[in-house]
Amino acid sequence: MLLRPAAKTTALLTAGLVVPALLTSMLAAPPAAGEPTAPAGATSVSTPDRADRAARAWLARGLSVDERADRLAAVMTREEKLQLFEANPSTPIPELGVPARKEKDGCCGVSLADAAETPTTGLPKSISLAATFNQRLARRYGLQIGREAWRTGFAGVTAPTSDLIRTPHFGRRGESFSEDPLLAGRLPAAVVEGVQQQPGVYSLAKHYVGNHQETSRQGVNQVIPERALHEIYARPWEHIVRSADPGAVMCAFQQVNGEYACANDHLLEDILKGAWNFPGWVSSDFNACPDYTAYTRGVDVCAPDLGSASVEQALADGTLSERRFEDMVHRILRTFFAQGVIDNPPPGTLDVPSQDVPGGLVPAFMLDEGARLARRVAGQGAVLLKNSARLLPLSPDDSVALIGPDADRYIDMFGSPSVPNPGRLSTIVDGVTGRSEAEVTHRPGGDTTRYGDTLGGAAPVPSGVLAPSGADGGQRGLRASYFLGFQGDNPRGAELVRVEDQVNHRTGTGGLIGFFGLNPSPAPLIPLPFAVQPMTALYEGTLTPAVTGTYRLGVRGMGTFRLAVDGQTLVARDQVGLQDHLEPIRLEAGQEYDIRLTYQPDAPRQCCGADVPGPTVRLAWEPPSADASPQIREAVQAAAQADVAVVVASTLEGEAADLHSLQLPQDQDRLIRAVARANPRTVVVLATGGPVLTPWLGRVGALLEAWIPGEQQGRAVADVLYGDVNPGGKLPVTFPASESQPREIGVENPSLQFNVPNPTTTFTEGVNVGYRGYDTRRLRPRFPFGHGLSYTTFGYSRLQVRDPRGRVDGRVSVRVRNTGRRTGTEVVQVYHGRLPNASTPPRQLVGWARVTLRPGRSTTVRIPLRTGRSDRLLAYWKVTGNRQGGRWVTPEGRVPIYVGSSSRDIRLTGTLRLD
């Protein structure tokens, strides 16, 4: 993640307050370590020639990008070369025409958190793009990002996020693409191509490699078997590097097999720069280099702490050879020439001093183009998971109860994938209201989602039953008072007092990211400095239940908490790990109960700094019925009076936080059940970053996965609900049927390592990731990989398989017919079976084709089976010699071929022969 301290953080620093390691690390570099090495690189340092500088020989026509880079390097002074390694943004060298190395987060749109006056396009998140299975659309997606990055003054964008989705609990699943390495390679590669179609912009693809959990991401060691490393996790990157040639690659925070990814010579030197011959540069994630010896192990830019001063020190003490230094310089300059950064510098990148502010505005016509693209991607990526009795598409004449706490706001992720200032916003309330010709009534049904919801567990007590102490004007929630220091049960001298709708907080690194303007939720965060210092919080008010019954009331959290009801202690804990502590209590409807909760985050390793839990507390409950929430009751009443109910169920996900549970947060499961009881014509729209549990599936008429659908979410969702767009999206990930199913295939929930220092995650499932694992273990998921319904139907026939011969690819052809009454799009998927004489998964994706047909029409689709090194189809990695030795093997013999509409909906089978 590429961030700079916000103004408010700078103010705290100048005020002399203690700040977390995340912020202080921006100002202090780790000590040097290691022994001198002399890796291979470019030519040795030369003395600049003033005549050559004047002649500007690097601008001569007919030169290759390598020759141009060499000629420019030859006239640069040592000081000028060192400037290339400064923190983002670097200092430009205008007299040589070298712009600043100025980069911005932009996986799903350019993220300008510090420039509210500069809107950019908020595209649907990458998983939505992956669900389209549309590489052409992915290139257009990347081009929009590249164009807007250039317009706003950035030469590099950290796009795409190319982390394979190993676990459905992965906090960054929404900004990633797929659990399948082929889909997770081809779609990001197309995005890279699109970004780099814009002259003057390069793609900084992330996070190579092993970035598959956010929990303890700066200390976790991912133990990945060599075969799985090549077949599953490195394979998408090989396709990205070989076919799309990104200007730069970002290495990850994690350790891989005992070495940090940003100091891992096997990953960086042996594979990326060696086997794949990657010519660009490797940049670290934010302070992800353990020390400056990383420069000798394959990293070219360590940012921001280990910048130019560290490079200079490494050269001075002999850790870094001149040859390696010149190689680093060459790689940066080569990308600058290859991607047109020097020939077409973004606005402001030649200005001195260079600042991390936009170089210009995105023009209105470009924002309009972005809005149309966002709507198209969201529509094509929406996946229809269920449609009983053809409830969808809706009739415009149906009155609608539109329900959901986030249906009337911009649904986005937090952290680097966030696009805080969308240029053309349409909420789901806007979209449905604009499309329907009947009455549309919106009821939230609960409180908005927030970062604290990633903690899972018992639901937070909703604002609808809470009132703050001393409040007037109908405020809902509790009075929150914050004190510096661990003060016990009777704190004194509040530094801050405010009303909060819920007690539902998580801090840590992800919470701190919110102070950079990268948290879209309007819910309150524990403010600075309390989020990063020893503190005590006091929450006071009343709870007025709506129904009489036995409740379970208490706290989910870590640290010391004391909960009193009407002056009597209900829960008192000094909690080391994260747990629920709920106690039964009889409450009467309409009666006010005094609530007093004191809290301090004083568990071991909890406070304070980066990559630690920080304040973690929730006032939680399990009510006797849905009627206990006035907000749910209002939603149910609206649903009962409407022709159809549409529930928008959402999550808030992002950086530095894996999901503790796949259940919907904010008691939305209870909300959906209650609405479905009131109206059998209930549609659920999921606005989530990935799979969730659906325990109410049998009670609702239709289910649509809209993912995190971008700035045009309202119009795009309405397009699908009303049939203006026939859903053609397919799941790029498996939806498990239970919380335990991923564990059954060998994938533990990474959030179980919450507050575990330097944990180890062992990839015991090997190559059986995602649907491969479900097939191997013969488990039935809720929805399989590749699944997606339509408002029409398709028939398959006439399968033909052409075997590969030498350098001629194999091919599968099949006749597809639209057998329904609507025009629609089908994604024909081809899988191969077990390879001969090898232990491989039962099915693996080898290709697909999108086809759009009018009713009654048919066509023959032809899907090539490319066996080249970019895709590594029909081959497996055979480990030989030592732990890191091995080679790709394409065995000889017959291989089953499966063609269908999903990994479990196989329509035709055939056989391919490998010689």
From TrEMBL:
Signal peptide residue numbers: 1-28
SMART domains registered for this protein in UniProt: Fn3_like (SM01217), PA14 (SM00758)
PROSITE patterns the UniProt entry points to: PA14 (PS51820)
Superkingdom per UniProt: Bacteria
Source organism (scientific name): Nocardioides deserti
Region described as Disordered: 438-470
Protein name: Glycoside hydrolase family 3 C-terminal domain-containing protein
Any one GO MF annotation of this record: hydrolase activity
Keywords attached to this entry: Hydrolase, Signal
Keyword match Hydrolase: yes
Similarity comment: family membership: Belongs to the glycosyl hydrolase 3 family.
Source organism phylogeny: Bacteria, Bacillati, Actinomycetota, Actinomycetes, Propionibacteriales
Cross-referenced Pfam families: Fn3-like, Glyco_hydro_3, Glyco_hydro_3_C, PA14
PA14 domain mapped to chain residues: 473-636
